[in-house]
Amino acid sequence: MKTIKIIYKTTLLFIFATTILSCNNKPKSDTKKNSKVMLKLFNINTSNQLIVNVPESHKEQCIINELIKVDSLGYAKGTRTNEETGEKITVIFDYNNIVTINHSDKSVFRFISPFIVSGSGSGNFKYIGLFELNKKTNNINHSDTRFLGDRIVLEKLDYDGNETLDIIIKTHRKEQSFSETPKVTKILKFNITNIINKKE
Prior knowledge:
Blueprint: H1 2-24, H2 36-42, E1 50-53, E2 61-64, E3 66-70, E4 73-81, E5 88-93, E6 99-100, E7 108-118, E8 125-134, E9 140-150, E10 153-159, E11 164-171, E12 184-192, E13 196-198
Antiparallel strand pairs: 1-2, 3-4, 4-5, 5-7, 6-7, 7-8, 8-9, 10-11, 11-12, 12-13
C-alpha cells in the first residue's frame, strides 16, 4: 500500500512540475504587443516600435507609442526620462507632414518627418528627421536630424522629388516675445541624400 502511495505522489509531482515548466517556456514574442503607431502610420502589424533619437543628447532614444490629437490633428507621441538629469522628455512625431524620399528602393522606404522635442522648460524645439523603414524586417532607422527652430510654426514642406527640400516656417522677430504668435515667414532649404544638408 505504501508503495502505491509513493508511486501516486511521484506521478502527481511529475505532472505538476511538467505543467509549471511548460507555462514558463512560452515564447517571449507571445507577450509582445503590436505597435498601434506602426499600424496607423505605415499599415504594418508588428511589435517593432518607431524610435526617435533625441537630438543633442548622449544617444538617448524615445519610443513613440501613443496616438494623440492636438487641435483635431493626429500625432504620435513618446516620453522618456533623461538618465543623467532626471528630466522628462516628450517627443511629438508629426506624421501629417511625412515626405517620401524618391531615392528609396524595393527593400527600404525612406522618408522625412518633422518632430517636436520638449522638456521641463518652455522650449518647443522642432526638427526634421530622416528615417528608413526596412520593408523586410519592419525596423525603422532614424539616420539623421536637423534643427528647425524653437516655437516656430511649420507651414509647408516642399520636396522637388529629387534632392531638394524647402521648409516654409513662421518664426519670431528678434525683438518679439516667444509667447507671441510668430509672424516672420522664412524658407529653410535642405539637400537630402543619405543625410540632411542645410543649404546656405
